[in-house]
Specification:
Shape: globular
Structural class: alpha+beta
Strand content: 25-35%
Largest sheet: 5 strands, antiparallel
Number of strands: 5
């Protein structure tokens, strides 16, 4: 395997882009030989949540979002979703009857369960990237 592998896609900040982001990540994982199993399902779910947040919480102030995927030689998989909105994500309180407000909680729990972490980095243009980093225990082809 090379020192690392990377892929990226930029999509419009519309609801239709959420399944497109998930599908893109699924294709990249499959191309890298990582596309099957529970770990890949977890990554696709996390990407869905991150992309949904990028669409819903930027309130039209970020016309696009970018999904970056990186896998290093040590087996660390990083997925980042970047938008140009300056507000950092925060956990919202969600009542039991609400349909939304749990995205960051879900992402944090899934990442922690897989031995990973969630972190946010600022971008040069004033936006931010929400990252998940996971140890990848599936053999890489």
């Amino acid at each position: 395997m090379a020192d690392h592998q990377e892929a990226s896609v930029t999509l419009p900040s519309t609801p239709a882009s959420v399944p497109a982001a998930r599908a893109h990540v699924g294709c990249v994982l499959a191309e890298w030989g990582l596309g099957e199993g529970e770990a890949a399902d977890t990554v696709r779910l996390i990407v869905s949540e991150l992309a949904t947040n990028a669409v819903q919480h930027t309130r039209g102030e970020s016309p696009t979002f970018t999904v970056d995927i990186k896998l290093d030689q040590e087996g660390r998989l990083e997925i980042g979703v970047t938008d140009s909105h300056p507000r950092r994500p925060r956990r919202l309180s969600a009542a039991a009857h609400q349909d939304n407000g749990r995205g960051l909680v879900i992402i944090g729990c899934l990442a922690a369960e897989a031995g990973g972490e969630v972190f946010v980095t600022p971008t040069a243009d004033g936006g931010k990237t929400v990252w998940i980093a996971l140890p990848w225990t599936v053999p890489v082809r």
